[in-house]
Amino acid sequence: MENRPQWGTRAGFILAAVGSAVGLGNIWRFPATAYENGGGAFFLPYLFALLTAGIPLLIMEFTIGHKYRGSAPTSYGRLGQGKSWIGWWQVTIAFVISTYYAVIIAWAMSYSVFSFSLAWGDDPEGFLYGEHLKLAETPGDFGSLVPGVLIPLIIVWVVTLGVLFAGVKKGIEIANKIFIPTLVVIFTIICIRALTLDGALLGLEAFFKPDWSKILDGSVWVAAYGQIFFSLSIAFVIMVTYSSYLPKKSDITNNAFITGFGNSAFEVLAGIGVFSVLGFMAKQQGVPVEEVVSAGVGLAFVVFPQIINEFPAFNELFGFLFFGSLILAGLTSLISIVETFVAGVQEKFGISRTKSIIFGGGLSAILSLIFATQGGLYFLDSVDYFINTFGVTLAGFVSVLAVAWFAKELKNLQAHANGLSDIQLGAWWRICLGVITPVVLGYMMFDNLRTNLTSEYGEYPREFLFNWGWTIAFGALFVGILFSMKRSKTDVVSSTSTGK
Ligand code: PHE
Ligand code: NA
């Protein structure tokens, strides 16, 4: 019908979906999350979450995108009367995430260059907060723009928007076909080197040792589901957008399984690599492994530089490869997030793809400057936490309820997927999405609310969390509703072609 862009090959689509899924979450979030939530015992709730929520939701998003062939708001609008606001809400969440996700990639770019001279010296922590980020004293202060962050950030945006300008097949697909295999090769080299370090076994022992006493703890299950959602990029509607570019005849269910297991394989690989080097460092310093475990910014930009310093040989190369892998994993995810709102805006306002990239991508690039100021790290930390806790989780909950219970679409989606796929979905799929996932997500919301109403995240001042957390997370919902209220070109189209 309309000349919708299309993937060139099945492998291209799978690589792009895996590229979106494999991101910073695999490398710096998973290892520490697993370790803190029972080590080897965490694999049980993790696998359960993958099979009852992760893959079923991935199948749901793939099917919605394929069946309704539109960006997320259009697809949700076609799925059920008056449901496009859910798509807009999720698109707005994706937009917010893109603004700070880009900045973390920019840091990794700087650090890949710093690796050549081990520029962080023997105090990587002081270097990160002092010389590199020039971190403000008080959360909420902007200070000035930091050139050392600004310059790589510009490069990140040029690359990302450049790939999008080139299109779905010629841009996104080709970028992923180059970046993802490269990432796998680099990361395998890192892991082999890590495994052969003195002390690696100590780290692996700490990582895999099961602590079964935690298995009945609700927070461990919440952590497992949270990790799966973030890691598979579900409930960001990225997967709806990507699958809307699939040719009419495409296997859906099999693709979802490949994407889900591919992402988890990369996660376990990252856990092995990260804990091997942590074991090495613990042995060097003569301390137990638990003293060197960390996650997120601290793991990548403080602990890794320390480890690189102590490396027996080729420190610079190892550093370059590690930060290079962060850049590749991050860029392919960022591309998918930006595509999500670029596609939404393009359809809504009936403008060209190029214009939509300039307006949508440009606005995100401008707003990302907030995180390149001296106060950037505080803003980033708070926005990241709140948009994930009260954006992604809540929107995921609402979208499952809308599809399963209000639109009662599960049976139709199941029939659509089964008509195309080798693997046939049975009642288990509807039970996972209609019962298990809503119950777990509902409990997560309740648990998150309770935690955040009784304590201040990160011990930040309340006013700061209000401005840079609550307002942004719930603002996304508000903006999403506003967007859906204005009638758009595609609404007119969709009343004549329902995508059936
Ligand atoms: N799935 C990505 C990861 O594991 C995170 C991500 C978040 C990707 C949002 C796209 C959008 O890091
Ligand atoms: Na991931």
Molecular structure report:
The chain is 75% helix and 0% strand. With 500 residues, it is an all-alpha fold. The radius of gyration is 22 Å and the shape is globular. Residues 492-500 have low confidence and may be disordered. Bound molecules: phenylalanine and sodium ion (NA).
Give the structure's gist in a few sentences:
By secondary structure, this protein is an all-alpha fold.
Looking at this protein, list some descriptive labels.
single chain, 500 residues, mainly alpha, 20 helices, 0% strand, binds phenylalanine, binds sodium ion
H/E topology pattern:
HHHHHHHHHHHHHHHHHHHH
Mean pLDDT: 93
Q: What is the rounded distance between the termini?
A: 13 Å
* Helical content band: over 70%
> What is the molecular shape?
globular
Q: Flag low-confidence runs.
A: 492-500
For the largest beta-sheet, the strand count, sense and barrel status come to: none
Bound molecules: phenylalanine, sodium ion
- Tally of helical runs: 20
Computed over alpha carbons, the radius of gyration is 22 Å
Our estimate of the beta-strand percent is under 5%
E-strand count: 0
Q: Please state the structural category.
A: mainly alpha
